Amino acid sequence: MIYDIVFEPTPMLHERSADVDPKEINSREMQKFIKDMVETMYIKDGVGLAAIQVGRPIQLCVITKNYNPLGKDDLCLINPVWTKLSITKEWDEEGCLSVPGVYGKIKRYKKIRVSALDKKGKKLEFIAEDFFARIVQHECDHLGGHLYIEKATDFRHVDKEAVKVKVNSKYPRV
Ligand code: NI
After folding, report:
1. Rounded-to-integer distance, Cα 143 and Cα 14, Å
2. Which residues surround ligand 1, an ion (CB under 5 A)?
3. What are the average pLDDT values for consecutive 10-residue runs of the chain, which has 174 residues?
4. Domain ranges in the chain?
5. Residues recognised as catalytic
């Protein structure tokens, strides 16, 4: 099932998502939801997607395998938390499926330590760097009720149709 994306402005996008009860992760319903999240991420041409962006405010996000150095599969992070491992932040451009037609520059930590549960409820601990670390920080912001546009600068407006045909794939949306 493909979900519709929740666009800004929507009050829900600015609220913190609720923690997932680990006991629910292996339910048939949650497993189907995770599968549908991944499918939606690909159809909408995103590289990451938070559950709140499809209207379900729970601490869950998915990240495409193309940006996942940990393995060959798409990554699902449940109840994720991260801590910085680098002192300084780096600028780069980001886009967001919930804010179509615009990209902006935002500072993110280059290296972070992440702890979460995976799609089967198993504990995950890993270090993320560079663009992968950027995606995790962007998705965790969503789960905390924050959009990158709150902190970004140098906004660049792009043709919505151009985005659809992946002309701007250098700067994937998350
Ligand atoms: Ni986003």
Report:
1. 9
2. 96, 174
3. 96 97 98 98 96 98 93 95 96 95 95 98 96 97 97 87 49 75
4. 11-157
5. 139
